[in-house]
Amino acid sequence: WQFKLDGIMVAEKIAPYCSGGCQAIADTGTSLLAGPADEVDALNKQLGAVKIPIVNEYVFDCNTLASLPTVSMVIGGKTFDLTPDQYVLNVTQGTTSLCISGFLGLDL
After folding, report:
1. Hey, is 48 helix, strand or coil?
2. What is the pLDDT of residue 65?
């Protein structure tokens, strides 16, 4: 499904990503939110994530999740809030946890 994304907000403040609106696609086949690489890189950096270049993904310090801001998507004038629990994938294997950003940069 393709639709117009009016904008993105971080901690209830308008962010420079998707400025003036942009096209978005909802894909129920993935748990990631993909967008233009440059803008998603900037969003992840603003949120405090660190890039792992080999896999082109961003990770958070799992101990900081409670302090991460809400990221909101504005669609059709309605705001949809994503809490850190919703945009961070917490993957645990044995005693090791990795907190991966659900925001993925993807240029088509």
Report:
1. coil
2. 94
